[in-house]
Design a protein that fits this description.
Elements lengths: L6 H132 L5 H6 L4 H76 L4 H25 L23 E4 L4 E3 L2 E2 L3 E4 L5 E3 L4 E9 L3 E9 L2 E11 L6 E2 L4 E5 L9 E8 L2 E3 L7
Antiparallel strand pairs: 1-4, 2-3, 4-11, 5-10, 6-7, 6-9, 7-8, 8-10, 8-11, 11-12
Helix pairs in contact: 1-3
Protein name: Peptidase M23
Organism: Litorilituus sediminis
GO molecular function: metalloendopeptidase activity
Amino acid sequence: MTLFSCKPLSRSFNLFTVCSILLCCILLNFSQALAQQVSANEKAQQENKAKLSDVQKAIAKQESNIFNTNKARAKLEKQLKQDDLAIAKVARAIVEIEKKQKASTEQIKQLGKKKQKLTKQKQQQEQLLAKQLRSAYSTGQHDYLKLLLNQEQSEKVQRTVTYYQYLNKARIEEIDKFQATIAELLQITSQHQEQIEQLEQLKLEQNTQEQKLKSTKAKRSKTLASLGKKLLSSQQQLAKLKAEENNLNQALQKLTALIQAEISLTGLSKLKNKLSWPVKGRITNRFGTRKQGYLKWKGVMMSAPLGRQVHTIHNGTVLFSDWLKGYGLLTVVDHGNGYMSLYAHNQTLLKSVGDRVETGEPIALVGQSGGQSQSGLYFEIRHRGKAVNPKHWCK
């Protein structure tokens, strides 16, 4: 037993132990590092999820804001339409009252002249009757009965009686005329007074309507201000204008399909540089210039004060007379041979669908309907649905 030593075994055992310990340490460190990495990954994932959730919430909020804004704009645009139509109704009522006032004033003037003429006629008849009475008295007509009973000088008596009868007949005729004049004068005086009272009533009614118009305009201004707060991005504004333009085009296509050609409507082809502009005003936006993005003006925008008359450029038939989104109160006139003229943003419309209009006839009043902040007229000329430059027709 002494021939063998235990040292080599002990060294091997120690080396194995050290290796095992080192391996355990390495495994432990690896496990800890792996655990830390897993923890870090989980934390990163949680942070990313939280960020994604925040982004999704932000997107959802933005979509909700856009939806609410569009919903609010739609509501305000509907209110704006109602305000525009209310203003149009009151403005048209004022126009009708002014027409009645003008007619009443003219009638008062004519009745006044007739009254003056009848008064003068009455005075002349009074003088004539007085003259006849004096003549009858001076000739002794008060002895008429005595003369009839006188049997002497029959020829002289006959001549005198005939003369008296002539005077009586003339006097009776003048009295009848005088009575008729008095009756007509009383009637004219009564009518004159009625017209004066009616004119006063019309003035009161006009004042009421003007106050109502003022109130309605103030309401519209508030609606417009609220609408202005719901700002649209450039892309949204472009989409809005495009939709409004498509809406107009669709409406015109439907109207074109309904047009029945009239022999008397010859179109505008021979009237280049001969027509008058529909309203006196400065052109603020010209045909073909940039409107928004790639959209261009299909007509002209003319600056003019509220209430100024809008005249049709040529005779034709009214095809459309109503409120249209983006254009407000709009009138479209068919001139024949595929030619149309459009008048938009009016305060009120004076003609209805189917009405025949003549060149220069008032068809509307300048306004700012359809969401305009300034008063003016938007004017287009179209041929077979395609917009053409109005400057080539109007001088």
